[in-house]
Amino acid sequence: MVVPALTSARFETTVSRLSQLPESRLAEVAFVGRSNAGKSSALNALCGQRRLAFASKTPGRTQALNYFALGPENAAPCAWLVDTPGYGYASAPLEVKRGWDQLAGRYLAQRKTLAGVVLVLDVRRGLTELDRGVLAWIAADVPILVLASKCDKLGNAQLAVAMRELEAALRAEQLSNPLGLLSFSAIRRTGVDEAREIIADWLRPGETT
Length: 209
Ligand code: GDP
What we know:
This protein is α/β, with parallel strands linked by helices. Helix content is 31%, strand content 21%. Strand 3 and strand 4 (79-83) form a beta hairpin. The site of guanosine-5'-diphosphate has 16 residues, from helix 1.
C-alpha cells in the first residue's frame, strides 16, 4: 500500500470523549500546540488546503479531537490526522484545562495506533511550560516532530539563536521518543516538504504495531 498524501485529508468526525474514539487499526498522526501557535495554519499548509483545520475551530469542536481521513476520495480511509484542542488560552477556565488532560492528554498517552505527534510552537516563544507538560503525556515510543512555526517573523541570525535554544530546551527534557525539529512557516511554506516526508515515514505500512 502506498502512503496516503496529506493533500487527501478531509474532515471525518469529532470525538469529545475517549470512549468515542474510532475503533481503528489505522495509523494516526496527532497535532498539538498552544492556541495561536499556528497549528491550524500548519495543518492547512501540510495538507495543501486553505480551510481544512477551520473544521476544528467551529463551535462544539474546539475542545474535541477532530479526525481527518487520509486516502483516495470515495474510498475507506488509509490513515488519520487528529487535531487536538489548542491549550494555554490565558482565560480558559480550570474545567477546560482539566478537560484537555482528560481527553487529549490521555489520548496521547494511551492511543496504541498513534504513529507520531507533531508539536507546533511559535519559534519566538520557544518551548513553554505547557508544551513540556504535553510532551510528557506522549508515550515514550511515539516519534515527535517539533515545528518551530512563524520562522518568517525572525531574521536569519535571530532564527539561528532561537533554534539553538529550542534544541537545547528539547534536549533538557531527556525524552526517549525519536525527536525531530524543523523551522517552519505556513506563510512561506518553509519546512513543508521536510515535514511531509517525516509524516509519510511515520505512516508507512509496518511502522505501527
Ligand atoms: P492555532 O490557534 O494554533 O490554530 O493558530 P492559527 O493557525 O490560527 O494561527 C494563529 C495566528 O498566527 C494567525 O493570525 C495566523 O495567520 C498566524 N500564523 C500562523 N502561522 C504563521 C506563520 O507561519 N507565519 C506567520 N507570520 N504567521 C502565522
